[in-house]
Amino acid sequence: MNKILCAPGSYIQQTDALGSLADRYSTIGDGGAYLIVDPFIDQRYHDLICSSFDRARIPYRVERFGGECSMNEIDHHVAQLKTSDVVIGIGGGKTLDASKAVAHFAKLPVLICPTAASSDAPCSRLSVIYTDDGQFDHYLPLPKNPDMVIMDTAIIAQAPARFLVSGLGDAYATYFEAAACYQSNAITMTGGHATNAAITLAKLCHDLLIADGPRAVVAVRKGICTAAVENVIEANTLLSGLGFESSGLAAAHAIHNGLTVLPGTHRYLHGEKVAYGTLAQFVLENRSESETKEAYEFFRTVGLPTSLADIGIADATDDDLLRVGELACDAADTMANMPFEVTPADVAAALRAANEVGTLL
Questions:
Q1: Which residue ranges form the domains of the chain, and what is each CATH number?
Q2: Residue of 212, 253, 310, 346 marked active site
Q3: Is 253 among the catalytic positions?
Q4: How far apart are CA 71 and CA 138, in angstroms?
Q5: pTM attached to this predicted model
Q6: What's the distance, CA 280 to chain centroid?
Q7: Catalytic site residue 77?
């Protein structure tokens, strides 16, 4: 059996990392850095981001991310690269996915700097491509993981708590999707089957979230970086990243992608929609009452969605939910990794049922 585990070249988690980016850059490049930065992050931290390059007299160019990880956005940045020899992405999940895709098409190394622990995207060899108006388009598999992932814990602890909570939703799905893929013997995004190490990392991710998630959210709401916050940053980013990529995705993420067809969900973050997709996956699997109760209680404690209203579609019709199911069950998505057949009607029913189960627990 072909078993594969993939990981970034380096994972670095430290305080004040944004102020020393040039030092990290100089280990993989020397011709100039091309920085793709989330607009809000650029406005708030521009001088800090640029400071180490200025001190070291390393050439760099800062370009703001346009807001959507679409092929038009990616092509725009590829055309601007010129003599730069390393792409550096700084911001949230879509900024980072775009940066990885730009580096891929330009055949350059990429250094990833998340400014929130809001998803498991940073460590992966994958970019999620959307249309210009925010609907899921396709997954873009990449030939390698990022050369370096740098987590500035001081910046992340000061980000809005909603971002960390979204990361909890994305990370919580990791173990349950991994378990489904293991049961079905699915081929993961690495092109092989899951290793024991990957499954173990996915389980550790779940256990850290339950142990430290609520305390981490309380701390981040005050802008404080505690041991619990450090653990959750690692779980949301490294453990969830390695766990999903090398163990596999299943219903929860496929349902997230399906939900993007409904405009009401567009103002909600990736992990918030994945969280509700996990509850729907639990319905599809008919998981035990104790597991289901754990999920709903954890989600309520940290502030994740437990109803259709919580993701902006309280008034969704049966036809709306069937449209979600049709996109979620697309042959190119990960629903086929479930250990049993799932139809669009099954997804629609699970979305409705997850809403009702929440009123009972």
A1: 11-157 (3.40.50.1970), 161-357 (1.20.1090.10)
A2: 253
A3: yes
A4: 10
A5: 0.92
A6: 19
A7: no
